[in-house]
Amino acid sequence: MVTSFLLYFVCFLIFVTTESLLVNITILESAVAKGAVCLDGTPPAYHLDRGSGSGVNSWVISLEGGGWCQNVTSCLSRKNTRLGSSAKMDHQLPFSGMMSNDPKFNPEFHNWNRVSVRYCDGGSFTGDVEAIDPATGLHYRGARIFKAIMEELLAQGMKKSQNAILSGCSAGGLATILHCDNFRMLLPNNVKVKCFSDAGYFIHHNDISGKPYIEQYFNDVVTLHGSAKNLPSACTSKLKPGLCFFPENVAQQIKTPLFIINAAYDHWQVRNILVAPGSDPKGAWTSCKANIKNCTPNQLKILQGFRKDFLKALEGLGPSSTRGYYINSCFSHCQSQQQAYWFGLNSPRLFNKTIAEAVRDWFLETDQYRHIDCPYPCDKTCVEATDITTSQYKLSWD
Fold first, then answer.
1. Most buried pick, 219, 259, 288, 363, via CB within 10 A?
2. How would DSSP label each residue in 175-209?
3. Catalytic option among 40, 121, 333, 396
4. pTM above 0.90, yes or no
5. Is 333 a catalytic residue?
6. Confidence of residue 164 (pLDDT cuts 50, 70, 90)
C-alpha cells in the first residue's frame, strides 16, 4: 500500500515537472479596503501567466474549486487552510490542461493570458455579508472578491481584450455559471465573451435514503453567506434562493454563450449528493464510490438512474444555439485542468474529439458541439487514474 502510494506520488511529481508551468501568486492587498477578503480577512489572490503572440489580447479566467462551507463550524475549519486564507496558499501554482503554456498540451489557449483565481470564501464567490462576528472573525465576502479581482484584471489589460473566457472547476464551475452574465457586462460589446463550466452542473437530487440532503446544504450555504442578492434575479424572483444554487434553475436565463463539461457519473456528485453523508450507514457503497468498476449490479442500476436524472436536469440549459456541452461517461470530476483528460493521445474522446478540441470548436463556432456519451461501460476511452485532488473538492460536512 505504502509502496504503491510512493510510486504514484513520484509519477505525479514527474507529471507536474514535465507538463505543468509553475506560476507565482499575486496577493491583491488593495482589495482589503473594499472589504473583499477571504474567510479569515486576508486579501484574495490570483495567479497570472501573460499571453504572447496571437494570444496577447485574449484571456481565460479560471475560478478555483473546493466545495463550500454551510455553517460557522465548517467555515472555521476552512479558515486556517488555503481555502479560507491567502496566507496559507502556496506561492506557486501548477498550470496544466487548459492552463498549460505548451501548445503540445493546450493547442488553443497556450499563449492566451491565463489566470487562476484562488478560492477562499467558501460560497462560490457569491457571499456578501457586511457584519463580522467578533467571536469567529469570519468574513463572507465572495462576491466582493470576484468583483475586486475582475477590476484588477481589467486594469492589467483585460479591458482591451479581443476574446475572454470565464471558466472554473467544481465550486468554481458553479461560480462560472452564476457569474457568467456579470462577467460579460464587465467587457465592451465588441469583445467575444463566453463561459465554460467544468464539473459545476450540480443537480437537485435526493440521496439514496430519499432525503434532499444537497437541497438543504445549498440552502444553508446561501443563507450563511448572504448569497441571495448575488444570484440571478430571474431565478430568485420565482424560487427560494437556495434552489438558485442549482444550475438547472438558472442556466436557461443566462444570455452569454455557455459550455458545460461534465461526467454523467461525476464521482463528486455520486459521493456527496447521491450517496450523501449519513445515507449509507452500513458502508455498502464504500467500494462502489471508490471505483465504479466495484459497483454491484443493483448499484449500477441506481447509477444509471442518476445519469438519466442528470441528463434531464441538463435540459435546463434550454434550446439556445449558444449552449454547448460535453457529457462523457467517465467516473471523474474536473477534467479541463488535468492534462490526461484535457488533451493527449490517450485522453477521453466523445464523437472522436478530446475535451480541448470540443471547447475549441465551440469557442470558434465551427461546431456547436452538443454531445452526450453512451451509458457506462460503453466508453473505453476514459482515463484510468487515481484522483489525486479528491480532498480539494470535498464538502465541509458536519
1. 259
2. HHHHHHHHHHHTS-TTSEEEEEEES--------TT
3. 333
4. yes
5. yes
6. very high
